[in-house]
Specification:
Length: 148
């Protein structure tokens, strides 16, 4: 018997495995992707996460899961009161988690491109960075507690 049509593409197959609770299988599928394929898949997921808002545009796609990080998590906490940390990117390698959505957000908040590498190095070593508008940034290492 054929499996569901979602297994035709590795991206949809990985998502399907997560939906049915087979996280290890999803991890295996993603780990077999080429680096460029993983990056493109991450961009697609970022786009999808951006679509997860209520009718007022408030983010409802942020996980409230307080588990420990299983990979590097790049996170942002908006300046408005009551905001919680939202993961903008996860990756098995720190440089993959650091660059992209996190640095784009940092620049939107007024941080200069020439300073990003130093800021990222500090965050990898446990520092939280706060922009002038109050937006905070951090990178969680594998095994680090994801606290709100």
């Amino acid at each position: 018997m054929r499996g569901p049509a979602v297994t035709t593409f590795s991206e949809t197959s990985a998502l399907y495995q997560i939906l049915i609770g087979e996280n290890d299988e999803a991890r295996r599928i993603v780990s077999e992707m080429l680096p460029g394929e993983r990056a493109e898949f991450a961009n697609q997921l970022d786009f999808l996460r951006g679509m997860l808002t209520d009718r007022f545009g408030n983010d409802v796609g942020t996980s409230t899961n307080n588990d420990k990080a299983t990979s590097f998590w790049a996170q942002v906490k908006d300046a408005r009161e009551g905001s919680s940390w939202r993961t903008v990117k996860t990756a098995d390698l720190v440089h993959e988690a650091s660059w992209g959505p996190l640095t784009d957000e940092m620049q939107r908040r007024g941080l200069r491109y020439g300073e990003l590498a130093d800021h990222l190095a500090d965050m990898v070593n446990g520092a939280e960075l706060t922009a002038e508008d109050g937006t905070a940034f951090r990178i969680l290492k594998p095994g680090q507690e994801n606290t709100q």
